[in-house]
């Protein structure tokens, strides 16, 4: 069995720090931004220099290639989202890795022009990271990828609540009146305002429910990412009883609002892995999530949360949650245990630090192939990273010619 050694055991030739370029979609106060910052922190805590840049700031891969070759040059690169960021790395001459964003595998693969580009990116990448087994399988199916490149590493979750957060002021600023404020049952839909999040999916059924019981309200909270769509959402919410729109908040304020609400809601058409769902579980808040592959990968129906496949089913599950205290307590208990077991921040840090070391090896030792295997009995015995095992990464190096790291097709 060939395993990759820990960084401290690789010897003097590999103990140097690396300058890394990290491209991601960095819209403020979004899950992508939070994920990128967290991964950057993991990389820099190992002593590397990691420069995080917004992919939207670049017009072409040539611009990125010029940046990479500057003085001092970057020695490697990383990108979140195979198309939006990964495509910008096709012309660079240093090794790079990619992280699936979710919409790249769930949505962009449906467009042939994008799919072809993403396939080239994946072929050239030294490694790829999927948040779930489902994303990995979809990538293998649609992008004809080599499975030995794809590692499954769930997002690490850490929550922190703002001590200065005022729930009453939050509700008032969102448009709610002061009457019976302490008795309200607030369902919090956490999402940036863009179509893939489908924030209007539940509006009609929730408004009707609110008319029957005014104590039930839906608050949509998140940044206005798509300006045109945001105007549409604002117009609908303004004329809809029981539905309110809160502006974007800092991560700590968002977590404070989540902790005070009755339940956190997800209505997305597509998800890679919803950080908001996992953060709600960590905060001890019940979750109601739309039944899509990305959500079903982390929400086990009636165990860690409730899944729904239509607005009417959302209403039914919400009513169950209101009337069944035992169900609510079970969801909260199991959800928190699930996050603690499968979404360890320390395990995520270890994974990315060691994957970055494979870039360092690839850039400095020609023909070095790095192998990584999971422990006996894990679900990734074929050598892929897994979730749920604190010992899943043991390492050593193998000086053999790589057959896995193919170049893009000509």
Automatic annotation (TrEMBL):
<feature type="domain" description="Glycosyl transferase family 1">
    <location>
        <begin position="183"/>
        <end position="336"/>
    </location>
</feature>
<dbReference type="InterPro" id="IPR052622">
    <property type="entry name" value="Glycosyltransferase_G1"/>
</dbReference>
<keyword id="KW-0328">Glycosyltransferase</keyword>
<keyword id="KW-0808">Transferase</keyword>
<dbReference type="InterPro" id="IPR001296">
    <property type="entry name" value="Glyco_trans_1"/>
</dbReference>
<dbReference type="GO" id="GO:0016757">
    <property type="term" value="F:glycosyltransferase activity"/>
</dbReference>
<dbReference type="Pfam" id="PF00534">
    <property type="entry name" value="Glycos_transf_1"/>
</dbReference>
<protein>
    <submittedName>
        <fullName>Glycosyltransferase 1 domain containing 1</fullName>
    </submittedName>
</protein>
């Amino acid at each position: 069995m060939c395993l990759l050694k820990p960084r401290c055991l690789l010897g003097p030739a590999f103990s140097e720090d690396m300058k890394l370029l990290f491209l991601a979609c960095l819209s403020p106060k979004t899950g992508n931004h939070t994920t990128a910052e967290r991964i950057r922190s993991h990389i820099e805590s190992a002593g590397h220099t990691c420069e995080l840049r917004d992919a939207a700031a670049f017009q072409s891969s040539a611009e990125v290639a010029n940046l990479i070759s500057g003085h001092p040059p970057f020695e490697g690169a990383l990108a979140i989202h195979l198309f939006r960021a990964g495509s910008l790395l096709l012309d660079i001459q240093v090794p790079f890795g990619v992280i699936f964003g979710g919409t790249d595998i769930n949505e962009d693969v449906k467009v042939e022009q994008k799919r072809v580009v993403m396939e080239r990116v994946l072929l050239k990448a030294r490694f790829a990271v999927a948040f779930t087994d489902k994303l990995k399988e979809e990538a293998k199916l649609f992008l004809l990828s080599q499975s030995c490149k794809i590692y499954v590493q769930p997002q690490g979750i850490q929550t922190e609540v703002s001590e200065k957060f005022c729930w009453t002021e939050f509700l008032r600023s969102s448009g709610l009146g002061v009457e019976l404020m302490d008795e309200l049952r607030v369902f919090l839909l956490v999402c940036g305002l863009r179509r893939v999040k489908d924030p209007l999916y539940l509006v009609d059924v929730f408004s009707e429910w609110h008319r029957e019981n005014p104590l039930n309200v839906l608050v949509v909270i998140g940044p206005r990412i798509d300006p045109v769509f945001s105007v549409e959402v604002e117009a609908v919410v303004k004329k809809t009883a029981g539905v309110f729109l809160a502006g974007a908040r800092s991560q700590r304020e968002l977590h404070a609002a989540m902790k005070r609400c009755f339940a956190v809601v997800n209505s997305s058409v597509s998800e890679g892995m919803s950080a908001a769902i996992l953060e709600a579980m960590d905060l001890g808040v019940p979750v109601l999530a739309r039944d899509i592959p990305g959500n079903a990968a982390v929400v086990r129906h009636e165990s860690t949360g409730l899944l729904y496949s239509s607005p009417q089913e959302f209403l039914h599950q919400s009513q169950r949650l209101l009337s069944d205290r035992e169900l609510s307590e079970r969801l909260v208990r199991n959800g928190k245990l699930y996050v603690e077991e499968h979404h360890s921040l320390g395990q995520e840090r270890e994974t990315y630090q060691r994957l970055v070391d494979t870039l360092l090896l690839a850039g400095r030792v020609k023909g070095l192939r790095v192998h990584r295997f999971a422990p006996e009995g894990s679900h990734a015995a074929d050598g892929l990273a897994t979730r749920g095992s604190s010992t899943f990464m043991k390492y050593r190096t193998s000086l053999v010619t790589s057959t896995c790291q193919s170049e893009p097709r000509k």
